[in-house]
Write a structure and sequence with these properties.
Number of domains: 1
Distance between the termini: 54 Å
Radius of gyration: 17 Å
Structural class: alpha/beta
CATH architecture: 3-Layer(aba) Sandwich
Strand order of the largest sheet: 1-2-4-3-5-6-7-8
Order of helices and strands: HEEEHEHEHEHHHHHHEHEHHH
CATH superfamily: Alpha/Beta hydrolase fold, catalytic domain
Number of helices: 14
Strand content: 15-25%
Helix content: 40-55%
CATH class: Alpha Beta
Number of strands: 8
Shape: globular
CATH topology: Rossmann fold
């Protein structure tokens, strides 16, 4: 039962596949056809974070939602580099391994921070970037989670986080309570919680990830973003408690070809709370000819 809960992925995400990356294989889910959009989630969630957005975009776009090894994944990567630059490299490896070009890369939460690292180190296959309520500058990880996730860095994390088997506990600020206003769909929420609770190899991956998240990586990426010349959409929740809205303004000012859109009333998990608006913004952004953007600026 626990294994089924951990491995569940929404049908809207499409067909599952695996791609060779440095140090292992990365699971992904693919739906639709057309211009490619690749989605990266954050810590202790998985591809299910994007299920509502993919459902709206897949009729017109090729949507690829990655299961990034951040603690809620299903394929362990014991031989991969799981520092922040290493995980960013896995995202780039997946894009290359799938033979994608002119990709729109979309990241939320920790995944948005990793996308910043990825596009500033390996921009060749990236056509556009979407950053939605994510880590940025020296906010990596947000201070609150430095303390909340400290037990996960140690053996026995499944005991420390055992209370998350209870749905009421998941609505606390130390879980998802300050990431979404309303409870997350039970099957998706179970898929976020159970991998780390039930699989020692996944917990080992998570420990290595947490040890490899350091502010200097994001500060370096922010400096490099000053020279990032791809169109960028910054779409941010106005009520985000962990990724300050002023960081959205700073990112839009830092990246040469960027624009800012607000997702009113949303916390960090904008794909959960504002999927319609976010999907509409992404679709319009991908369809917008680059020449028109340049002329408008």
């Amino acid at each position: 039962m626990a294994s089924a809960k951990a491995s569940w992925r929404a049908a809207e995400l499409g067909k599952a596949g695996e791609v060779e990356v440095t140090g292992g294989r990365l699971r992904y889910y693919e739906a639709g056809a057309g211009p490619p959009i690749v989605f990266a989630h954050g810590l202790l969630v998985n591809a299910n974070l994007w299920r509502k957005v993919v459902a709206r975009l897949s009729p017109d776009f090729r949507c690829i939602a990655l299961d990034v090894p951040l603690g809620s994944h299903s394929v362990p990567l014991p031989d991969a580099d799981l520092t922040a630059p290493g995980v960013a490299n896995l995202i780039s490896d997946a894009i290359e391994g799938l033979g994608l070009e002119d990709v729109t890369l979309v990241g939320n939460d920790t995944g948005g921070g990793l996308c910043q690292i990825a596009v500033t180190r390996r921009p060749e296959r990236i056509g556009r970037l979407v950053l939605t309520s994510c880590d940025a500058f020296d906010n990596f990880p947000p201070p609150f989670f430095k303390y909340v996730l400290a037990p996960a860095r140690l053996p026995g994390a499944h005991i420390a986080f055992g209370a998350l088997r209870l749905r009421r506990a998941r609505r606390l600020p130390i879980a998802f309570g300050w990431l979404t206003h309303e409870p997350i769909d039970p099957q998706a929420e179970d898929s976020y919680v159970y991998p780390c609770l039930t699989d020692g190899a996944i917990r080992a991956d998570l420990r290595r990830v947490l040890k490899g998240i350091r502010p200097e990586y994001m500060v370096e990426a922010a400096e490099r973003l000053k020279d990032f010349d791809r169109p960028t959409l910054v779409a941010w929740g106005t009520e985000d408690r962990f990724c300050p809205p002023e960081h959205a303004e700073r990112l839009a000012a830092t990246i040469p070809d960027a624009r800012l859109e607000w997702l009113e009333g949303s916390y960090t998990f904008t794909p959960e709370e504002r999927p319609e608006q976010l999907a509409e913004l992404i679709a319009g952004f991908v369809r917008e000819p680059r020449a028109e953007r340049t002329a408008a600026r």
